[in-house]
Every structure is written in C-alpha cells, then in structure tokens.
Write a structure and sequence with these properties.
Length: 104
C-alpha cells in the first residue's frame, strides 16, 4: 500500500507498508524499503513471468585467476566474469571489456 502524507510542512512524502508474509512470498533477502515500492514489485512480477534461469543458457561456469598483466580495454565487448553473477541478477559493477580480437 502506497500512501502520501504531509510531514512538518513537506507535502507528497510517500511511504509504503508491506507485511512480513509478503516478503516471504517474494522469497527476497532484501530489506531496503525501495525494493518493496509497489512499482518495483509490479516489475518484479512481470520479469519473473518472462525470465528463465541462467542455467538454461550456461552449460559450465568456473572461476580462475586473471593472467598477470591482463589488459582490458575501456570499451568493447562486455566480458562476463564469475564475480558478476549474483543471486537473481547479473551485476555490471567493475565490468570488463574485450576487444574484437580478444573475443576470437
């Protein structure tokens, strides 16, 4: 439930209320308030209906040491590394890129 209130002269302050049972329903481990904004919950439901597990596309994945002196260009073909794969999403934090010749 999303509610607008006025507080100390400020108008249009929004807050939402969610029951703990709804958090368990979503099987989320997040407790930040923005995650449970009604807009975000609607988008999660849409994405869940259209998404497939990464295991449908990846046959094998393993981590390894980056070769000493490895050079990654600032732009190019995004290079997905093990540390970019998170539960339920792919993180673009510290994303690396390959040049076309490295992608051969």
């Amino acid at each position: 439930m999303l509610t607008n209130v006025a507080l100390d002269g400020h108008t249009n302050i929004q807050y939402s209320i969610i029951n703990f049972s709804e958090i368990k329903f979503h099987k989320d481990t997040r407790l930040d308030a923005d995650h449970y904004h009604p807009w975000h919950l609607r988008n999660l439901e849409k994405n869940r209906a259209q998404s497939q597990p990464l295991s449908e596309f990846i046959v094998h994945i393993s981590g390894g040491a980056t070769p000493l002196g490895a050079m990654y260009p600032e732009t190019g073909i995004p290079f997905l590394r093990v540390q970019n794969i998170m539960p339920n999403y792919i993180s673009d934090a510290d994303i690396k890129y390959l040049s076309p010749s490295q992608n051969q």
